[in-house]
Amino acid sequence: MTASRLARGRLYRSCGCRDAQRKQYGPRCPHLKTDTQHGSWAYAVDLPDTPGRRTTRRRTGFASRTEAERALTSFTTGEATGVYEEPRLTVGTYLEEWLTGREEHLSPSTPAGYARAAHYDLLPGFGPLRLLDLLAPGTSRNG
Description:
5 helices; 2 domains
């Protein structure tokens, strides 16, 4: 990973253990120092300034540091190029977000028609699939 990309993000291990007050330890869990198999890897990256507040994107649950590093690189590259790859994003979630984002730019009947087509035609068959798993016929992810 390049230094500029790593400078914006942080990699760390975290877990779901809780203390006596039922508050999660997260990255401060004492078991993380002694047990290399305990917890999972995560990344955090500060997003561009929003006036008056700090926004941080965090993603956890990566099996290895390399996997978390790849995800962080993918996010920062996507941020720089405007093309994001969200590994867990499903077609259904993407369509719902897309429809919501288009409502204010279209006449009232158009989003209703889009939603009808999505809910009756697309979501039943494609909704649970990961968006990154969709490929044009005859193509492969490896190039």
